[in-house]
Amino acid sequence: MRRLKRLIKRSSGHASGSGSQSPATSVTEWPQGLDIVYDCPEASLDIVAIHGLNGHREKTWTADNGVHWLRTLLPKDLPNVRIVTWGYDANTHSRDRMNCQYLYDHALELVADLTRMRTLTNSTERPIIFVAHSLGGIVVKSALIHSDAARQGALYEHRSVKTSTYGIIFMGTPHQGGNGVQLGRALVNIASIFIAADDHILRHLERDSEWLQQQMGQYGPISGEFVTKFAYETKPTPVLLGGTMLVVPRSSAVVPGQADAEPIGIHSDHIHMVKFSSEKDGGYIKVSENLQIMARSAGETIQSRWEAEVRADNARRDDITQFSLPLNLSQVTSAPRFVAREDEIRQMDGILRKGGGRQTAILHGLGGMGKTQLAREYIKRHQAHFSAAIWLNARDTTSLQQSYMQAAQRILRYHQSLVYVRNAVQNQDLDQCVEAVNQWLDEPANGNWVVVYDNYDNPKFGDTKATNTERGGGSADVMLADERNETVLLDQEAFDIRPFLPGTDHGAIIITTRSAAVDLGEYIRITKLADPKSSLEILASTSRRQEIDQDEAASRLAQRLDGLPLALTTAGAYLKGVPATTCAEYLTSYEKSWKQLLEKSPKILSYEDRALYSTWNISYAHIEDQNPASATLLRLWAYFDNEDLWYELLLEGLSRDGKEYLNGIVADKISFNEAIRVLYDHGLVEPEVSMKEPGGESNGYSMHGCVHSWTQHVLHDDQDEEGVYMAHLAMECVATHNPDEATAEYWLIQRRLLKHADRCFTRIDTTMQVREGDEWIYLNLGNLYNNERRFAEAKAMYEPVLQGYQKKQGYEYELTLIAFHNLGRLYSRQGQFDDAKVMYERALQGNEKMLGPEHISTLQTVHNLGVVYADQGRFAEAEAMYKRALQGNEKMLGPEHILTLQTVNNLGVMYKNQGRFAEAEAMYKRALQGNEKMLGPEHISTLQTVHNLGVVYTEQGRFAEAKALYNRALQGKEKILGSEHISTFDTVHNLGAVYTEQGRFAEAKALYNRALQGYKKILGPEHISTLGTVHNLGAVYAEQGRFAEAEALYNRALQGYEKAVGVEKAKVYPDAINTLENLGTLFHKLNDKEKSRMYYIRARDGYQAVYGSSSNHYVRVVSMIQRLQSEPSGQGVSGL
């Protein structure tokens, strides 16, 4: 039989009526169907109003003074719309309007009425915004459910309603039932004259009714497609029997957690919350303003949605052979006006469309020359010549991979039948997305695409000088200028782009770069604008000064800025922001600032486009005059990363040594926003749009990399007093803000901190000296890298803390002991158990001496030393350490303290590894009960214990129970840690083991591959967790009879273990022994008795050394060896 590796996680140390009606109402006074209350020839939006329970198509929306706000007020705010009201029979209190139609029938009528009206007026694709009161909201939801279902077949035209719906304002809709239902039922029981024949409507609205729950389930999956506002009443409604009540309270009117939704309080009762007497009515203002905001984006969104519908229609017609994507250049913002560059565009077209295989154009030039805008303009002009255009950000490998993922999502949106693209997107695997997009580009029939690799500014091809010389296109001075240009590029990790390029020889590629070393195609050097008129056009466009071409000073300014698009754009932005400044005044300031630049940074003279930095100096001078805090922030930003700087990160500096510089910036959020606003107004920063999960903190801002280089090299010298101080302050901010694992969404904050830590790390590595008293900074930065599995950087951070530790005393010595302990944790995570043991023993010796044998820190080191012994298979020593830690924690902290429970959990891990399953189960159950009580059912420590208990049940063959526990752990981890956290992959791995045991090999393989990709990305291909998944994949292949693949994977795992722990130690390493046994079983199946016996004997000796001769492991393998000896030649085992 084969043995699977299961990963065990140790605990780480660280009615609602709209209006009352008379019982004698005539038919004409209860109108039904659609009524257009306002229209205009240029209408681009339909607003559809649906009344509520006992409501009326006209009276529901009419105030006591006779004002029908939909007819008289709203058109003033939204003139280019069509406003429609719809009436239906929702009578519950009158005899004369008995009706047997139910809510779904009303919803069908609404969809049918809207479809006919919009078809006859040629407005089928016009955006819709619903305004629904009370019961009308449930009718709207039912209508949208029906419209969505119409996509599947019958009444196909009805789908247009849902496709066109952009937003909904629910006005007092009882999404979970409402007290108005009880009011209606009471009236039915007391006064028969109010009884409605349609009592089913009341039952539908009863709180938690089965129908409503079903509707919520059906509406939920599509609700995120609409912008939603939940309006709720704040005042009670008078009741006919006396008294008042909130008919639909906030808890019923607002659906918690719905995406793209917002609650709105209306200071009125249930009936009058949709009756507005004037444009000054507070409720009207809220509703109108929300409608106006929705109207701004509705057109573009619904147009895109209809385009997607057309593409879906094509797919349904099996039109999957087309490799086309509609043009989408949203990834790059266009310049206000593109000018000149006609020669370059013709040159690009000559390269990219000359045929004969794949063609590549390299756009090379200094940052700010307009390379990106040139590529964008070319694609925009020549889109008809390409079936698809894909834009990728090649700033670094991470940005490039993320762009590939966005491209994969876009391809899948238009070609949903592509299984390999769908799998990559669903797995959220960046490497898989790169492969999937390139596979799509490599399809033989897909040869007419163009791909842009933008901002590939930091290539890694070997000898840059040699590459420049080989190209031969310039003098030595030019090459030196290029080389010096590299010093002001973004601080990025250099990488080779070639592995990311499609492999097939077709299609077209554009690469924009600042580096002359990118020699992958035909080279186009992008230089300054030669025609002064083009420079004036940029100034006129960006400054919005229409007669600038008649200003002689503007001509001189354009000439002085020397045709650099970014410099011209920045100057124009300055002139636009400060209208009173003339071009002559700007030019005077420019000359003055340039002289200062010459004095301080003479090396910049080597740049032929020095005007770029002078322009930013001018902006800085005005910023300093306008808001000194903004200028300070700009200087301080030099010592953070250029991307994602946010308020809470800088706020940490106030608690350290940064009050002098930071008080005016982050004294409060308003001060920070004002400092940012000034920088934003001058075009120097932008909101960080790529940050989707800010970790419960503020969104950040980013600065262009060239501007960031300018802050570093021009604003101040790294060696001046302020530069040294600010660099240290940035380190303090990053180190102090590193959260512990008790902080909500701590992992998201740590991810945001990494780039800033990298900036600090770079400076520490090159220019900064370790100051006395800074050990805590390096310790915290090391912990950040350690938690993110950046082990090399973590170790480098710990080293300054450990220097001269023998001479340290007091607080400094305590920090040293923490560093030893955490370095042990680092080595343990890397599988370097001997090194981990040394670190933990040093920490233990120091803690016992300084703090005593029963101090919590001492016991935690004892506990972690037990972890190392257990990983080495030294179970007797591990058990002794665990029991010492357990007894100490129970004495000092109590039996239910978190640290006590961690040791209980890890004792369970060790017992499981020894095959002592009953003891392991007892430990896990104790840890689980304690964690659920102390931390809650969804805390990560609780989920780890749930995971581990699943391992025991798997080993005992209790697969159904194991699967339930793994699913609980997986759902919790994905929610708390995310789908790509290492702990999440551990549970994915183990769930694959259960499916393997159950013979569900396809599902097991999918889970193993997901875990394997995650481990390789986070831990590397040779980590023991990665190797465990490789081993288990081998077991799946063996079960499927794919023996060659199984053997290869087993050998890869075994060699990896021997490399990780050493050949000799691998002989007693449990995972390696497990692999030996499975290799023996594999060769037994292949009837290779010699190899089978060899591997079984090695496994037997290992099991005996680790578990003893009475263990199940040992007995099982001995039995297999005896079976080999008794079998006749040619007979193998019947199955693996």
Number of strands: 16
Mean pLDDT: 79
Largest sheet: 7 strands, mixed
- Termini Cα gap: 5 Å
| Rg calculated over all Cα atoms | 35 Å
Count of alpha/pi helices: 47
Give the neighbour order of strands across the main sheet. 1-3-2-4-5-6-9
The stretches of 5 or more residues where confidence is low (pLDDT under 50) are: 12-28, 92-101, 177-198, 200-209, 317-321, 463-492, 594-612
Description of the molecule:
This protein is of the alpha/beta class and 1136 residues long. Helix content is 56%, strand content 7%. It contains 47 helices and 16 strands. The strands form four sheets. Strands 1-3-2-4-5-6-9 form a seven-stranded mixed β-sheet, with helices on both faces. A five-stranded parallel β-sheet has the order 11-12-13-10-14. A two-stranded antiparallel ribbon has the order 7-8. A hairpin with a 5-residue loop joins strand 7 and strand 8 (244-245). The radius of gyration is 35 Å and the shape is globular. Residues 12-28, 92-101, 177-198, 200-209, 317-321, 463-492 and 594-612 have low confidence and may be disordered.
